[in-house]
Every structure is written in structure tokens, then in C-alpha cells.
Amino acid sequence: MAGGFGAATGGKEFEAKITTLVIISCIMAATGGLMFGYDVGISGGVTSMPEFLKEFFPVVYKNQQIPGLAGNYCKYDNQGLQLFTSSLYLAALIATFFASYTTKTLGRKITMLIAGNLFLVGTAFNAAAVNLPMLIVGRLLLGCGVGFANQAIPLFLSEIAPTRIRGALNILFQLNITIGILVANLINYGTAKLAHGYGWRISLGLAGIPALLLTVGSLVVVDTPNSLIARGKLEEGKAILRRIRGADNVDPEYSEIVEASRAAAEVKNPFQNLLKRRNRPTLVIAIMMQIFQQFTGINAIMFYAPVLFQTLGFKSDASLYSAVITGLVNVLSTLVSVVFVDKAGRRMLLIEAGVQMFLSQMGVAIVMGLKVKDHSNNLGHGLGVLVLVFVCSFVASFAWSWGPLGWLIPSETFAVEARSAGQSVTVSTNMLFTFVIAQAFLSMLCHMKFGIFIFFSGWVLVMTLFTIFFIPETKNIPIDEMNDQVWKKHWYWKRYMNDFQDGPNGKYPQV
Ligand code: BGC
Q1: Closest-lying ligand 1 atom to the alpha carbon of residue 403
Q2: Structure confidence at residue 326 (pLDDT)
Q3: Hey, what long-range contacts does 506-509 have (CB within 8 A, 24 or more apart)?
Q4: Is the Cβ–Cβ distance between 76 and 452 less than 8 Å?
Q5: What is the tens place of the pLDDT at every residue in 112-151?
Q6: What does the pLDDT look like over 250-307, one tens digit per residue?
């Protein structure tokens, strides 16, 4: 997600069938993830299409057409072009805060409906754009859609799904992001070949399909029992709980939801609560993981792969299918994470990937440093393939580590009292740094040249050391036992736990 699901609220399992409503919720997870992934993946291919550049970024178009004018590393260095990609994340960052309000006061269903509509209008603006402002307004609207969707869908799903499939839904969301990116790459590959140069309109317009699915889906679903109960609609909440669970006796789960919303209502200022000393370890880890996830440099590849491959001297067609290859590697490697996350554990995946990402990025930097000069470029076929292999190795290791775990670890470590506010901080920090990379990468490439990959590998080194010392293993630990089993035992974080008073059942903190 960039979503990150509030993972299970506890270890308890209530009576629950997989009902139609639960199936529709899985579809919502799919459309939310697809929509986000599609937006991530589509801009890179579109910005490498000459017709699109000619229409909106004539300066970049000229750089591309006249060899030697701007040098290999700088031909795409344009703030407007980067704004086309980055504006979405800026809007998403701001929208997350409004969405957190509507999710609470109007409910999850209405918030998802708002997201669907924003996506539809944004897509229409983009596909019909005749000038740069229209294009940017479209991206801003899509970004608002992402902000609303990423806040409401994860909450909606974690509340409606039976406990036993919550974890799976978490990774399903990330998997769908990667599928969305791949689909976008494939569509760009197809539309770039269309005659008359309107391919980019089709690429941008097809985002309307997941947007429509989300809009219709949010009309069909009911609001969650948790949201209804928290808004005082107790009877309606109970009736809906019966419907979604397909069971008559839902009293135990109902009582727990009522109790949880009473406790949540007592937390006067959730963000202030988040700053309490005992929540410091999870807060620091959640924020650092978002910064690190983006400073792996993954979105330099996801957003700008086709542009990057052209910088390396690949032809337009080869650049687009190389992006398809990296997209495919991204999807398949996310599946590796599904298999290993609860077996090998989180730390193992993060540390292994740290080594692999470091080596792959150094590989790209060395080949580029030796062969790609400002005005000459003699990579040749063999070295071109070698760079592609390094890039795929980098993407693969990201996809089984920082991709899904960057979302999973915060969602499973925040204490129940801090989970919702923690989720907003996680999402918005991620969006902020995604924005930074999207806005800066092409300029950094121009100024730092191949050194940009050494820069990212430096970050990878730092985050791997951070993992070794500060990220504890959380595999197979029930959510409500994190304090006892993880934080109080950690060599460093245990010092933050001394103001932690055990609640009556010895597990929950006193608020
Ligand atoms: C990240 C995105 C990234 C995607 C790539 C997600 O976990 O949050 O920024 O584009 O992974 O698959």
C-alpha cells in the first residue's frame, strides 16, 4: 500500500463464514491496490512517449530529438515533468488527513465512495487533457483519491474480514499494487505503438476501470460494524455484524467491538497519545521504515524505468519492455515474501535484501560509470543486459522485503491505543518521501550521474544496520503480546517501556 492493514486486533477467533460481503471486500482490496499501482506505473511509460512530451513538455521533447543537446544524464531533467509524477503523492499526503476525519465521522463506505469519485474525475481530466494545468489537476485529483482510498480501504478490510484471513489480505493489497504497476507497464508497451500518437490518452484513461469498480463496489458494500458502533448506531452495527459473519450469535465479537470503541473514545487526542514515551519505539520504527523504503530508490525504477533505460541508450521499445520485465519480477518476488515472511521471519528478509540491493546498485553504478558518459554511450548489448539483470535483482530483493514489510511491520507493532493515528502517520510519511523521490530523481540523475546509485546504496547500508540493531523480529507474535515478548526484551527499546503500566489483564497499557 501502500496501505498497511491494521493487522489483527488480537489473537481471538470468532465464529465467521466467508460470506458474499467478505468476498466483495477482497475485491475492494484488489481494486484499491490496482488503482494505486496503476498510478505508480503509468507515468514513467507515458513520460517516455514522444507524442506526450511534444504536447506537454516541448523542451524535453527537443532534448530527446536533438542528440547531444542535454547530455545523456540530463535529457529528462525538468521540474514540470517531475511534477506530473510527484503531484499525485503531494495531494495524497494532504488528503490522508481529511480522509482520517471522514473515515471517523462519515464511515468507511462513504470515504471509499469519495475516493472512487475522485479517481473517476481525475482520470477524465487526465485522459482529456489539452494543456499542462489540466494534466496536473487530474493527477492532483487522483492523488486525493489515493489518500482517501489508502486510509479507508485498509481499515474497512481489517474490520470486515475474519481474523484468520486478515494477514493474507494485508499482503494481497501489496500484491495488487505490484500487479497494477505491471498492468500499467504492459499497457504502455501496447499503447506506445499506436498510430496518431494518442496512446498516452488510452494509458491514462484506462485507470477509469479500477476507479469504476471501486465506486460501484463502495455503493454495494455496507459500512463496518466497528464504524457504525463507534458512531452510536449500535443496533444497526449488530445487525450488520450478523450479516457479514453469516452467524446468529455474534454477541462475543459485538461486545468486544463495543468495548474497543469505548476505549478508543476515551483517547482524547490520538496524535498526542502517539507521542507518549511507551509508543516511541513503534513510532520511530514506523517513520524510519517509510523513509528507508523510499530511499532504497525503488520508485526511481517504478516511476522512471523507461526513462532510465533510455538514458542508458536503450531504444524506446526496448525501454518499455525492460520496464515490463522489472514489473513482472516485482510481482513474482512479492509472492516469495508471502511464503517466507512467517517462516524465515522479517529480519532475515530485510537483511538478506539489504546485501542484495547494495550489490545490485553498486553493479549498476559501476557499469554506468564506466560506459555512460555525458555525450557518449557505448553500453552495447551484453552490458545492457547486465544492467537489466542488476535492476531486476534489486527490484526482486525490494519486493520480498521493504515493499511488503514496510507496511506490515508498522501495522502489526502499534499498540491498539495508537494504531489508527499510527497508521495515518505511516501513510503520510510514506507519501511525503515518495513525493520527494518523484520530484527529485531526474534532477539528481542529471547532477550526480551514475553516483545516484551509490547514493541509494549508501542508504541501503544504513537501513540494513538499522534493521540489525533496531528492528526486532515479530514473526508469530500475537499483536497484544508485542510489549511483553518484543519491546520489553529488546536491548535498546526496553528503556522506553518503563512507564508502561500493565492493565488489569497484564497486557494493555493504561491510557
Ligand atoms: C511502495 C511503493 C512502491 C511499490 C513498488 C510499495 O510498497 O510503497 O512506493 O512503488 O511498493 O512495488
Answers
A1: 7
A2: 94
A3: 507/480, 507/481, 507/483, 508/415, 508/416, 508/417, 508/480, 509/278, 509/415, 509/417, 509/483
A4: no
A5: 999 999 999 999 999 999 999 999 999 999 999 999 998 8
A6: 888 888 888 888 877 887 787 888 999 989 999 999 999 999 999 999 998 988 888 7
Distance, CA 50 to ligand 1 centroid (Å)? 27
- Are 58 and 200 in contact by the 8 Å Cβ rule? The answer is no
Distance CA 319, CA 209 (A): 26
d(CA 436, ligand 1 centre) in Å: 14
Q: What is the pLDDT of residue 65?
A: 81
If 0-12 CB within 10 Å is exposed, 13-18 middle and 19+ buried, where does residue 342 land? exposed
pLDDT bin (cut points 50, 70, 90) of residue 15 is: low
3-state secondary structure of 492: coil
Cell digits for 389?
539483470
Q: Is the CB of 434 under 6 A from ligand 1?
A: yes
Q: What is the pTM of this model?
A: 0.86
Determine whether the shortest distance from the Cβ of 144 to ligand 1 is under 6 A. Answer: no
Give the mutation target among 42, 293, 332 for probing the ligand 1 site: most ligand atoms within 8 A of CB.
293
Measured CA to CA, the distance from residue 416 to residue 226 in angstroms comes to 14
Interhelix angle for 380-399 vs 298-311, to 10°? Answer: 170
Rounded Cα gap, residues 378 and 313, in angstroms: 8
Binned at pLDDT 50, 70 and 90, residue 32 comes out as confident
92 lines ligand 1 (CB under 6 A): no
Q: Sign of the CA dihedral 465, 471, 472, 476?
A: negative
Regarding the beta carbon of 33 and ligand 1, being less than 6 Å apart is answered no
- pLDDT at residue 508 greater than cutoff 50: no
Q: What are phi and psi of 509, to 5 degrees?
A: -75, 150
Asked if residues 85 and 138 have their Cβ atoms less than 8 Å apart, the reply is no
Integer Cα distance of 70 and 57 in angstroms: 15
Cα–Cα distance for residue pair 138/126, rounded to 1 Å:
5
Q: Residues 6 or more apart from 493 whose CB is under 8 A from it?
A: 281, 470, 472, 487
Q: Judge whether 374 and 483 are in contact, CB under 8 Å.
A: no
DSSP labels, 66-128: STTSS-GGGTT--HHHHHHHHHHHHHHHHHHHHHHHHHHHT-HHHHHHHHHHHHHHHHHHHHH
DSSP category for residue 449: T
Contacts for 263-266 with beta carbons within 8 Å, 24 or more apart?
A: 263/416, 263/417, 263/511, 264/230, 264/417, 264/420, 265/230, 266/511
List pLDDT tens digits, range 315-372. Answer: 878 888 888 999 999 999 999 988 888 888 999 999 999 999 999 999 999 998 888 8
Please give the torsion angle defined by the CA atoms of residues 18, 21, 23 and 28, in that order, rounded to the nearest 10 degrees: -140
Distance CA 60, CA 74 (A): 10
Q: Alpha-carbon Rg of the chain, whole angstroms?
A: 23
